[in-house]
Amino acid sequence: MPTPTFRVLRAAPALLGVALIAFMFPSLAEAKSKTVPADFRVVNSSGKSLADGTQYAGPVTIKTSKKADCFGEGTGGSGGKVDIPGTTALGQVAEGGAAFPGVDPLSVTDAFDFGLGLCGIGKAVAPSTGYWYLKVNHVASLTGGDQTAVGKNDEILWYLISDFSEPTPDELFLKTSGSQSGEQVDVKVVSYADDGTKSAAEGATVTGAEEPTDAQGVTTVTLGDGVTSIRATRSGSIPSNTLSLCAKGSRCPAGYATTIGGTSQADEITGSGEAETIVAGAGKDEIDATRGRGTDKINCGPGKDELILAKGSKSKVRSCEKVKHR
């Protein structure tokens, strides 16, 4: 097994941050404390998605773990609590457990002076040969999760690399492309390298498609009755995001399209036109769900929350103290 020192240096860009780089950025303690929404994906080393949706990020306090010793003997956490100020990638994943149960609990160590070390997200724990790879807007982060700022509508990806001696995998991203006719829809898959370089992902397998993607990264998916979840995979690549599509003429269940998670702070959550599952979390939240064309599924959670719905909305609502229609 490599020495702990080597592992820390090799894994630093994604896990711990580098002290010299950290000094180049404004202190996160000085950042705004208001929460922000950002795309949120967590994928384990076998390609299983632990989270895929939107998760708000904000300041949070987490508990470190004495068992978080993936960096070597003697690197476990103190077991005490630490504050993560501002809006950060680690803060986002720490708040994600309510909406995305697969990311709970976190295994974090505070054994290092230059940042927090992330060993485990949910049941996925970094082995002695691996680390958690972090990307922001498809570009590898040069700082640890507690030092990586998250802005509004950023795209955050965590991926568990099991062997850091192997080449860094590219990231696949899936979106609908062209027209949708009846039960068929064209989709396009792109690939992002470590530095964010974008290219068409040829040869990717997409759920529901008879053929792999062509040289332009395009293929056609056949939708089943109801909701079809589609995802792109390719050997040596990080699997794509998941799209949940409901065939025309089908009964589309409430909240099928995507999930939005809030924080323990006071969030201002604005829904989109999709049929969303909104899990607001604790805090005095304000939720605007007036844009939805589909039926939302909304759990306001603890706290005195205010929800605004469109007139005639059939959204399924729980634990919302004040509900208005507009």
Summarize the structure.
The chain has 326 residues and is mainly beta. It is built from 3 helices and 26 strands.
What's the arrangement of secondary structure elements?
Elements: H1 4-11, H2 19-22, E1 36-43, E2 49-57, E3 60-63, E4 81-84, H3 89-95, E5 106-109, E6 117-121, E7 124-125, E8 131-136, E9 139-140, E10 155-161, E11 170-181, E12 184-192, E13 198-200, E14 205-206, E15 218-222, E16 227-233, E17 237-238, E18 242-246, E19 258-261, E20 268-270, E21 276-279, E22 286-289, E23 297-299, E24 306-309, E25 316-318, E26 322-325
Parallel strand pairs: 1-10, 2-19, 11-17, 19-21, 20-22, 21-23, 22-24, 23-25, 24-26
Antiparallel strand pairs: 1-2, 3-4, 5-6, 6-7, 8-9, 8-10, 11-12, 12-13, 12-15, 14-16, 16-18
Question: What does the model show?
Answer:
This protein folds into three domains: 4-161, Ferric Hydroxamate Uptake Protein, Chain A, domain 1 (Beta Complex); 170-246; 258-325, no CATH class. The strands form six sheets. It has a nine-stranded mixed beta sheet. It starts with a helix and ends with a strand. The chain has helices at residues 4-11, 19-22, 89-95; strands at residues 36-43, 49-57, 60-63, 81-84, 106-109, 117-121, 124-125, 131-136, 139-140, 155-161, 170-181, 184-192, 198-200, 205-206, 218-222, 227-233, 237-238, 242-246, 258-261, 268-270, 276-279, 286-289, 297-299, 306-309, 316-318, 322-325. The protein has 326 residues and is mostly beta strands. It is 6% helix and 38% strand. A hairpin with a 5-residue loop joins strand 12 (184-192) and strand 13 (198-200).
